[in-house]
Write a structure and sequence with these properties.
Blueprint: H1 8-20, E1 25-30, H2 35-48, E2 52-56, H3 65-68, E3 76-79, H4 83-92, E4 96-100, E5 107-108, E6 118-122, H5 131-136, E7 139-142, H6 154-171, H7 182-202
Parallel strand pairs: 1-2, 1-6, 2-3, 4-6, 4-7, 5-7
Helix pairs in contact: 2-6
Bound molecules: S-adenosylmethionine (SAM).
S-adenosylmethionine (SAM) is lined by residues 100-102, 122-123, 125, 128-129, 142-143, 145, 151-152, 154, 157.
InterPro entries: Alpha/beta_knot_MTases, SpoU_MeTrfase, TrmH, tRNA_m1G_MTases_N
Function: Catalyzes the 2'-O methylation of guanosine at position 18 in tRNA.
Domain tRNA/rRNA methyltransferase SpoU type: 25-163
Length: 208
């Protein structure tokens, strides 16, 4: 085993968090452009135990450290070049694709079984999800709106749906078992508690 570059208590804490991660509950950000929104989404994703976040975005994902409180550093972020190809691949791997929006075909977000392997797809702040996503999705879900305004802020909507997923998964005991193999945990730890620390030190940044 590698000599990790963080104190044993820190290592134990990272391991504990990894053991509760839900690799089969994923997020897909389709052109979410505002850094406040992206950062708030990533912070909630970490809190709920999401591990993989896929995103389609021109250039780097806009992340603000102060807003994420470093949460993005404990996620695996996957930049996708093509929405259709990326989602088709996930669908072929057995994920149900749950898109979000306010269309006639939408169902209430609480009707979905989020204990199944699931990708939750959220869209652009003004335009929402694309037609491509809408066509590929197994379901499009909506959070009921009872006020004057038609939609929620995307980070708020993501948080509400993620916590419904958390409720269902907790009820089924899915936070009590590790979903990652020992090898997967070792490999992530090697990256987070070794390579990253070296990179951070080289940049003059203390590892968090
Ligand atoms: C501000 S909304 C976009 C509004 C856009 N006019 C539309 O029709 O989708 C940005 C994103 O937030 C999410 N969202 C906002 N309100 C929602 C709601 N009530 N139900 C489900 N998703 C919602 C969706 O992911 C949406 O793509």
């Amino acid at each position: 085993m590698k000599d990790f570059l963080v104190i044993p208590e820190r290592l134990a804490r990272i391991k504990e968090v990894l053991e509760r991660r839900q690799p089969d509950l994923r997020l897909f950000l389709e052109r979410v452009v505002n850094y406040h929104n992206v950062s708030a989404i990533l912070r909630t994703a970490d809190a709920v135990g999401v591990l993989h976040v896929h995103y389609f975005h021109e250039g780097e994902l806009p992340i603000n450290d102060a807003i994420t409180c470093g949460a993005h550093r404990w996620l695996l972020l996957h930049r996708e070049e093509k929405v259709k190809e990326a989602l088709t691949k996930l669908r072929d791997q057995g994920f149900q694709l749950v898109a979000t929006g306010l269309f006639p075909e939408t169902i209430d977000f609480r009707e979905v079984d989020y204990t199944r392997p699931t990708v939750i797809i959220v869209g652009h702040e003004l335009e929402g999800i694309s037609e491509t996503v809408r066509e590929l999705a197994h379901a499009v879900v909506k959070i009921p709106m009872h006020g004057m305004v038609q939609s929620l802020n995307v980070s708020v909507a993501t948080g509400i749906i993620l916590y419904e997923a958390e409720r269902q998964r907790k009820e089924k005991g899915l936070y009590e078992i590790s979903h990652l193999s020992e090898e997967e945990i070792e490999s992530i730890l090697e990256d987070w508690a070794y390579h990253r620390v070296i990179k951070d030190k080289a940049r003059g940044r203390l590892s968090s």
